[in-house]
Amino acid sequence: MSQESWNFLFIGLTFALYIVIAFRSRAASTKEYYVAGSGVSPFANGMATAADWMSAATFISMAGGIAASGYDASRFLMGWTGGFVLLTTLIVPYLRKFNKFTVVDFLGDRFYSNTARLVGVVCAIFICMTYIMGQMRGVGIVFSRLFSIPIWGGVWIGAAIVFFYAGLGGMKGITYTQVAQYCVMVFAYVLPVIFISMLLTGNVVPQLGLIGSYTKDGMESAVPLLDKLNQLNVDLGFASYTDGSKSRIDMFCITAALMFGTAGLPHVIVRFFTVKSVKAVRTSACWTLLFIAMIYLTAPALGAFARTNFIQEVNEVTYAEAPSWFKNWEDKNLIAWVDKNGDGRIQYRAGAALSPSKPQFATERGAHGERLLVNEATESTNEVYYDKDILVMANPEMAGLPAWVIALVMAGCVAAALSTAAGLLLVLSTSISHDLIKKVLKPDLSEKQEVMSARLASFGTLLVAAYFGINPPSSFVAKTVAFAFGLAASSFFPTLLMGIFSKRMNRAGAVSGMIVGITFTLGYIIYFQFIRPALGHDTGFLFGISPEGIGFIGMLLNFVVAFSVSAVTPAPPQEIQDMVEEVRLPNGVGKATH
Fewer CB under 10 Å: which end of the chain, C or N? Predict the structure, then answer.
């Protein structure tokens, strides 16, 4: 069978599976639509949460970031995994006991204010919309490679599929679809890395291959894989693969923003509302961590193998000798080569291949038939531009694995992007239908009308998300998603934490903190990511903190403002303080003693 036939077979079978599950699990009530009837088993919810969590940024971009930048990309591993521990210990058990449909529901009732509810809706929309555009971008890249269509076409296909099973089934349909998607993802992620580890190092366990010896050139020349990779990088002018190039403060802030942002993500929090009890939440969290670990512990090996293969396959070859995968991705405008020195050979070196902006591709081809960049960086000797998001998808092709393995990876990439996009779409639709329309604008809305409003909201928000998936603020999916984590860290995480553990925190403090935190973070991202580059200025980040890490500073501002305002305004009503105390205590222990 041809590669195209394998691709159609794997994608077709997985899509058919998702659609059948969604149809059989379609929601019939608001409780089923919002929280799957709160009857999902901890095991199934753990798998569904892992699928929801492992987005296109994790599946496609995290290993691509590790491959491209080595140590610097450890911020994703440390931030995302550490944040999930915070989420499952400090946030979700208490919110589940509160027994509401959404995060914004908790904010509105805990801070006894529709103003807090409205601010929460706005924050949820900004966070989820920023996050979902990264997923749509990932879907577009995969479909572009699979079906030889433009990225925008792939985005619209993915959007239609997500709308079908998320809009039809709600949380109930999403949950059981995500169980299937996780199974696809874990096989698609781990199996190729096992094969590549055997080819490069002789180890069947990828983690052992990462710390083992590179043996592809023969056992007599075996050297530690990381030593060989370090030497390859240094020879080409890059920083050593196991050393970082980011400043310490920026690395710390990005990691912290990812960590605290994880603990404030509404689409992950709401997954734990689908189980029966607080005890089931903790059991489900353990399963989720196990399922996540299966992929996260494999990502460093995948990134290192991809980096090694990329350098070995591409560097110092003529265009005629370039591997077929290089030219395939060229046709999708995700790889380009500009022969700057006229020697007819591809030179991948340190330095930017293009000027600081999005890549612009020439309509005509070069003298060798190569894809050209309009905005090449003439001061740099690097001749190769590649989108880091392709490395996971191209890795099996680089290693020469069978066509069915390549098709499996593509199916996994699609599953990762669709699973998270569906969860985000549900949060966006419920924020509008339940938290805004039902709770604020039209309290007399019937259950049937509320579900219909949620489906209409899904359609509208997906149109916007698809547009930004085609025209994202950054072509690198993980970077776009990192902005969403910064927004969550600066808005929801501090407010949820204070709402659970501080009886003195009142509505004035909470609302002020959220507004200051997210406004500062969003303003910083917009200015340094869009406005300043458009003016032709250098980065000039505040204290050297990039837009990816500024959410940590926004979070600190949220805490400071919230506590300051709360200290000079009246305490919450006694019934609210009693509610907070009850939420914090395990069932059956009675009242707290002081």
Answer: C
What the block records as the tokens of 471 is: 């025209």
With residues binned 3-state (H G I as helix, E B as strand, rest as coil), the percentages for the chain, rounded to 5, are 70, 5, 25
Q: Report how far residue 359's alpha carbon sits from residue 475's, in angstroms, rounded to the nearest whole number.
A: 9
β partners of residue 365: 371
State whether 182 and 248 are in the same domain.
yes
Q: Kindly list the distances between the CA atom of residue 100 and the CA atoms of 33, 96, 97, 438, in Å, as whole numbers in the listed order.
A: 13, 7, 8, 14
- Domain boundary among the residues 476, 509, 528 is at 476
| Domain with 384 in it | 309-388
Positions of E strands within 414-478 = none
In a shared domain, residues 255 and 374:
no
Find the distance separating the first CA and the last CA of the chain, reported in whole Å. Answer: 72
- Which backbone phi and psi does 337 adopt, to 5 degrees? -135, 130
Residue 550 covered by a domain: no
Q: Is residue 34 part of a domain?
A: yes
Give the CA angle between residues 445, 450, 451 to the nearest 5°: 160
367 & 428 share domain: no
Contacts of 89 (CB under 8 A, 6+ apart): none
- Please report where in the chains the tokens 């959410």 appear, as a residue: 551
If we measure between CA atoms, which residue out of 526, 415, 428, 517 comes closest to residue 473?
Answer: 526
Mean pLDDT by 10 residues, the chain (594 residues): 81 82 72 74 89 75 78 80 86 81 85 89 86 76 73 82 71 82 87 88 86 68 79 79 78 91 87 84 88 87 86 85 84 83 85 76 82 81 83 82 85 79 80 82 80 81 81 59 86 93 93 95 86 69 86 95 95 90 62 42
564 inside domain? no
Same domain, 21 and 136: yes
Domain count for the chain: 2
Same domain, 159 and 61: yes
| 355 in a structural domain | yes
416 half-sphere exposure, CB direction, 13 A CA radius: 31
Buried b (16+ CB within 10 A) or exposed e, 314-347: bbebebeebeebbebbbebbbbbbbbbeeeebbb
Name the domain boundary from 451, 476, 501.
476
Question: 62 is written with which tokens?
Answer: 């995290």
- What CA–CA distance (Å, rounded) separates 104 from 412? 32
CB 160: neighbour CB atoms within 10 A? 11
